[in-house]
Design brief:
two-stranded antiparallel sheet; 11 helices; elongated
């Protein structure tokens, strides 16, 4: 069995971001729809030879292209964001926290044609409202979701704490954690620093604390999740630096 530190979340999406709600996604869609409608009106009423009564082939292509390709092109070239998503500060993300691949964007786009364009968005609205990670069908198939973008991380939120040479680690077994484990814990700390009063952040911190205690064979600590995780990260960093120096 993989001995990586496991916290029951949607991995980095749950740690660093929160899924975008139905309202945010609808407003983003509305902004994008207004942009595409404006484009359509400019072509129909502003350019000669482009009409809706007897459009030629070129006119049909010019009129239909934005409605068909707008979301795909924007998400491919603007890191998972359309103009509407950028305005609402949301973006497409993979469930493992990495950037979606071209194939995943294509899958989302193909299913968009069915669940939004053809069926007036009803299947998408239902699945976003009912799924835990606020996913439409295209997201579920592609392994993605739409998350709220967060502010830039400050230096004090990501740097490892420096301890003096006389520092005495509270949890010497922290040295057995992996770099991936500690990156996960750092992400939890960022979430706790950003949303200290959020019930979901506190629940996430508690799950992380419990997972570390189990992993290190510790008796349940009475420290708060934030204080406990900060101590574990400090001990891990100090011990690794110490052993690296001795090597």
């Amino acid at each position: 069995m993989d001995d990586a530190l496991i916290i029951q979340t949607a991995q980095n999406v749950d740690l660093a971001y929160a899924p975008a709600g139905l309202g945010q996604r609808f407003l983003a869609w509305l902004v994008d729809a207004l942009i595409m409608t404006g484009y359509w009106c400019i072509l129909v009423f502003g350019l000669p030879g482009v009409g809706i009564e007897d459009p030629g082939t070129v006119a049909i292509v010019l009129l239909s292209s934005p409605f068909l390709l707008y979301h795909l092109v924007c998400e491919l070239f603007f890191e998972g964001q359309t103009a509407g998503k950028r305005a609402l500060r949301i973006q497409v993300a993979r469930l493992d926290g990495a950037s979606p691949t071209v194939g995943q964007y294509l899958l989302r786009w193909l299913f968009r044609l069915v669940e939004i364009t053809v069926s007036f968005g009803i299947p998408a609205l239902l699945t976003i409202a009912l799924t835990r990670r606020s996913q439409r069908i295209g997201d579920i198939v592609a392994g993605t979701t739409v998350v709220r973008s967060t502010r830039r991380v400050h230096l004090h939120e990501v740097r490892y704490p420096v301890r003096p040479p006389t520092y005495n680690p509270f949890f010497p077994n922290a040295v057995t954690l992996t770099d991936a484990d500690v990156r996960t814990l750092r992400a939890v700390l960022v979430r706790l620093h950003r949303e200290p009063t959020s019930a979901s952040s506190q629940a996430l911190g508690l799950r992380a604390k419990t997972a570390v205690e189990r992993r290190l064979g510790l008796v349940t600590s009475y420290q708060s999740p934030e204080a406990f995780i900060e101590t574990v990260v400090a001990d891990y960093t100090f011990l690794h630096d110490k052993y690296a120096g001795e090597g």
